[in-house]
Write a structure and sequence with these properties.
335 residues, Glutathione S-transferase Yfyf (Class Pi), Chain A, domain 2, four-stranded mixed sheet
Length: 335
């Protein structure tokens, strides 16, 4: 399977399944404890957002989580991390089975995150941007005591504005650079990426978080790209003007979040590297996975507390991850 666009500029297919799980069930899928399963892959930045938000809000008891392995072929993500290669709740080997069960002729991407209706085995949605918003707004009844407000009403316009430019130039910008099929398309994406990162550095030099004085949805979305920057995007996607570790403000900001419960403890660097360097064979035909980078810096002092801010607002940090959801030993950052 080819990922780079041989004609030039990479354009992401954003035709997602827009069915929503809501408190009032208006799309036919009401919020119900135990009914749905969130399928993720730790390697994927879009899925990583949902992993973090589910954890911060304390939804583990009401929304189970299935974890696909870091690599896949043209057909689908697989559950090769589970005994027998099958998801223990859904009983399937490939995520595509849940997609085809609802849409037998489904022709779009089999993507994570995806939420599956357990009783029917059918996918409900893979609309990653809406999934995390709905976890904040539609699942409120089941949030843990002390859950933070990640999408507060008074800040939504600002959060949405930040999210739009971060998606275009950073979250998707690294892919537009990495999957470019011409020098011109690559340099255009590269320029927009680092211009935006420089602008974000300027903003974050004077405030601890992107919007307001607490962690919001905007921080979650930027973080998952920054966490993968040196491990994958700098080399694999040729985003190599600067490493994250060479951008002082963003590096400190990323370390601040990484050391916040619910963020760094969801990051699996081994899966991240294996996914990008093994799956994208047209970019890395040898499929050699790099040994670096050194990860010990993620746990060093960041000094961002001096900017003030309250990570969880009036709420509290989440408890440690559940035993079955802990990042395997040796896959995270080391001290």
């Amino acid at each position: 399977m080819a990922y780079a666009n041989p004609t030039g500029e990479f354009t992401r297919d954003q035709r997602y399944i827009t069915t929503r799980i809501t408190a009032d069930g208006r799309d036919g899928y009401p919020v119900e404890p135990g009914r749905y399963r969130l399928v993720v892959a730790r390697a994927c930045p879009w899925a990583n957002r949902a992993i973090i938000v589910r954890r911060l809000l304390g939804l583990e008891d009401v929304l189970s989580q299935g974890i696909a392995g870091p690599t896949h072929d043209v057909r689908s993500w697989t559950f090769d991390l589970d005994p027998g290669g099958r998801d223990p709740v859904l009983g399937i080997e490939r995520l595509q089975e849940a997609y085809f069960k609802r849409f037998p002729a489904y022709e779009k991407g089999i993507t994570v995150p995806a939420i599956v209706d357990v009783p029917t085995g059918q996918v409900v949605t893979n609309d990653f941007a809406q999934i995390t918003i709905d976890l904040s707004l539609e699942w409120t009844r089941y949030h843990r005591d002390g859950a933070p407000k990640l999408y507060p009403e008074e800040l939504r316009d600002q959060i949405d504005k930040v999210n739009r430019v971060v998606f275009t130039d950073v979250n998707n910008g690294v892919y537009r650079a990495g999957f470019a099929g011409s020098q011109e398309a690559y340099e255009k994406a590269y320029g927009k990426l680092f211009d935006r990162l420089d602008g974000l550095s300027d903003l974050l030099s004077g405030q601890r978080y992107l919007v307001g004085d607490t962690i919001t949805e905007a921080d979650v979305r930027l973080f998952t790209t920054l966490a993968r920057f040196d491990a994958a995007y700098h080399g694999h996607f040729k985003c190599n003007r600067s490493k994250l570790t060479e951008m002082p403000v963003l590096w400190a900001y990323a370390r601040d979040l990484f050391q916040t419960p619910g963020f760094g403890d969801t990051i699996d660097f081994a899966d991240i590297k294996k996914h990008y360097y093994v799956v994208h064979k047209d970019i890395n035909p040898t499929q050699i996975v790099p040994a670096g980078p050194d990860l010990s810096g993620w746990l060093t002092e960041h000094g961002r507390e001096k900017l003030g801010g309250r990570p969880f607002g009036d709420g509290t940090p989440p408890p440690p991850p559940r035993p079955g959801e802990v990042v395997p030993a040796g896959h995270g950052a080391t001290g």
